[in-house]
Amino acid sequence: MHVKPMKELRLNTAKTIILKIGGSVITDKTEEMKARTGVIDRLASEIKRANVTSLVLVHGGGSFGHPLAERYKIKEGFRDVSQKMGFCLTHHSMTILNGLLMDALMMHEVPAVSITSSSVILTENGRIIKFEDTELHRALEAGYTPVLYGDTVFDRKLGFTILSGDQIIAVLASKLDTERVIIGVDVDGLYDTDPKHDRSAKLFEHLNLTQLRNVRNKLDASKAKDVTGGMAGKIAEIIPVIEKGIPLMMINTMESDSLFLALKGEDVKGTKIEKE
Fold this sequence. Notes:
By secondary structure, this protein is of the alpha/beta class. Helix content is 39%, strand content 22%. The chain has 10 helices and 14 strands.
């Protein structure tokens, strides 16, 4: 009896695009645990149409993670036994949001796999010190799209804390052969002041590393509930990415086709940040 040999799995060796979708895009931050399901569905559709060879997706918590984390003061670490349920509730709410995004990706036949951040990451005083990335690499090599998210994590010094999706993308950029990073927000890019409160805010269309550092010093934290530091915190996390020479594009993913165009490498309104 002749048995046909099994086909070998072709490993994906393409450079990776890291995509971060902010919580302000996929949730309504004015109402606790309110998802923007229409936006989530559109983004999943654009990801499918772009057909990127190697993609890692990271998403924020928005109105699912931040209110609970703030209520139970999870970011500050363990101080009282009542926080233990707060840790669990915050993590569970993030799995719900992640599930909604995964549902949309499955609906549009994107081969995505969810990787629970709290299961593979350990922090110390809020900074990542251990990232078990074996499954992440295997998923990418096999042609899947790993999906991670900001989450409650165990911390060596604090007991537990909140880990932002922005810190995750910075570590991913150092661990992967990264082509570029795309950050999807709910405004047209990076401004000199908050465009939601200042109509005269100026959009930066292009920044180098030195200019980015100067902008960071001038920005205030967002007025919305965000336990991970608002826009100033995001800039602090992406600076190491730019230092490695990895280009980054910040775009408005509330606008139809902006994500699709960015993933395809075509011109799209936003802020492009490069080392030089």
